[in-house]
Model the fold of this input.
Amino acid sequence: MSRIAYVNGQYLPQSLAVVPIEDRGYQFADGVYEVCEVFDGALIDEPHHMARLERSLSELRIDAPLAGSGLSVVLHEVMRRNRLTNGFLYLQVTRGVAPRDHGFPQKPVRPALVVTAKSIDPRKGEALASKGIAIASTPDLRWKRVDIKSISLLPNVLAKQEARDKGCYEAWLIDEKGFVTEGSSSNAWIITQEGKVVTRAADHAILRGVTRTTLMKLIAELQLPVEERSFTLAEALAAREAFISAATNLVMPVVMIDGHPIGDGKPGPIASRLRGLFHAAAEKTEWRRR
Ligand code: PLP
Done:
């Protein structure tokens, strides 16, 4: 089945879906995005994704692309038209199409909206989680407002590629003081030898992951000790367990950092438990029911 994309008001076969060359996303990376998981026919944590999108747009003074529940209708329609059961929705909003000029367009333009769908086989993620992943650390070269989910991702792209070149799955970004900020496309977590779950506080130096937010709720329900604070690479290397979180990976155990095994070098019990309980803790909206 060919994939159907939503592009500025139209549902089109993805191979025919195009945007104008003066879209400010293309010219300046002047836009924001969300990646939402679809699991067992349900859109996962839609309200959190919508709230974060609204915040990213407002921080960059980009108008909402559609009024009211219009965006939710489009997301569910893209799911329906792609018969998406397991996979992801990608949505991107840019400031719109205007003659190239760094400043905002002088005449107001409509924000541009693109939504695409990708189907995945969830067994692949489970197979990876049962082995665990390797991390490579690298300096965090990003700007000072990475709490905004901007499409300007060049440092993330370079960090991910550096990790891949080293045979690793993800990069952990290290700030100027030696603290881990987050992954190139995920949040970073450790479990200390005392059993405390630690992740960096959601300030301007990390993206507040939707998966992170749901995990925080789950961790509270399970009454696990948790600390939102910065941790160093040395602390991560000495941790009992480590993992990453993202809509695309859920909870993915880390078994190696910079060639050093974490814990006993196998996926840890707490990370695996959180992964197993994740979908039960998340909010689900289903396209089939609409
Ligand atoms: N941090 C960064 C830099 C990301 O790109 C992502 C996801 O793309 C995350 C964290 C995790 O966010 P979420 O859990 O909402 O997918």
